[in-house]
Amino acid sequence: MKLVIGDKFNSSWSMRPWILLKHFGIPFEETLIRLGQPDTKSKILEVSPSGKVPCLVTDAGDAVWESLAIAETIAEMHPWHAMWPREAAARARARSVSAEMHAGFADLRQNMPMEITTHAPGTGATPDVLANIARIEAIWAECLGKSGGPFLFGEFCIADAMFAPVVMRFNTYAPKLSATSLEYGKRITALPAVAAWIDGAREGAR
Questions:
Q1: Same domain, yes or no, for 18 and 64?
Q2: Number of compact structural domains in the chain
Q3: Do 54 and 11 have their domain in common?
Q4: Which domain holds residue 163?
Q5: What percentage of the chain reaches a pLDDT higher than 90?
Q6: What does the mean pLDDT of the chain come to?
Q7: Per-residue pLDDT tens for 59-118?
Q8: Do residue 102 and residue 183 come from a single domain?
Q9: Which residue, 81, 112, 142, sits at the end of a domain?
Q10: Does residue 58 share a domain with residue 102?
Q11: What pLDDT is attached to residue 206?
Q12: The whole model's pTM is what?
């Protein structure tokens, strides 16, 4: 199984399935394609019909693109891992907030892009971005309140992987956050899989 990704310091979409595979100890081959290069598009199109990363290439040679679709595929291939909550109502909420993250928060994405190696407190805090952040904090507070933590649905799952790039953004831009959000962000950042991604981002930015 091969996962094709972009640069680790700014490819937020690539981060999600990568840390999911790493966290659950699932072997895979990493293929990194540098973004913004003259041959970037052609290299990606060799493996990904969408022309974008990430793209998972299964052992059978099938391509799966879009981070949430990749996560669902990985979960189906490894049902013994609780990548979604086992309980039905919690699983439905986890899928809902994951899809909301996948499709929404355009202002946050535009004004606070994931740049792991950057430290720019206060940058990008427009009213629309702050509204996005408020919604994200509400999601985190509700999920953590119902599950009791330490992650959104108790144990680390796909929903946490979907929000991990947001934590990276918050680390970079340091918006004002609740104590609950700050503590959750620290737990995500400290995960070995996330720490390994951050190390790769720093190495790649040199």
A1: yes
A2: 2
A3: yes
A4: 88-194
A5: 98
A6: 96
A7: 999 999 999 999 999 999 999 999 999 999 999 999 999 999 999 999 999 999 999 999
A8: yes
A9: 81
A10: no
A11: 54
A12: 0.96
When pLDDT is averaged across residues 180-195 and rounded to a whole number, the result is 98
Do residues 64 and 105 both lie within one domain? no
Tokens of 47: 């493996």
pLDDT tens digits for 23-61? 999 999 999 999 999 999 999 999 999 999 999 999 999
Q: Verify that 168 and 148 share a domain, yes or no.
A: yes
* Spatial CA neighbour of 98 closest among 152, 61, 30, 44: 152
Domain for residue 201, yes or no?
A: no
Pairing mode, if any, of strands 55-57 and 63-65? antiparallel
Residue 203 located in a structural domain? no
Q: What is the 3-state secondary structure (H, E, C) of the chain?
A: CEEEECCCCCCHHHHHHHHHHHHCCCCCEEEECCCCCCCHHHHHHCCCCCCCCCEEECCCCCEEECHHHHHHHHHHHCCCCCCCCCCHHHHHHHHHHHHHHHHCCHHHHHHCCCCCCCCCCCCCCCHHHHHHHHHHHHHHHHHHHHHCCCECCECCCHHHHHHHHHHHHHHHHCCCCCHHHHHHHHHHHHCHHHHHHHHHHHHHCC
Indicate the pLDDT class of residue 204, thresholds 50, 70 and 90.
confident
In this structure, are strands 2-5 and 55-57 parallel, antiparallel, or unpaired?
antiparallel
| CATH code assigned at 115 | 1.20.1050.10
CA-wise closest residue to 205 among 163, 161, 172, 177:
172
How far is Cα of residue 192 from the mean position of the Cα atoms in its chain? 14
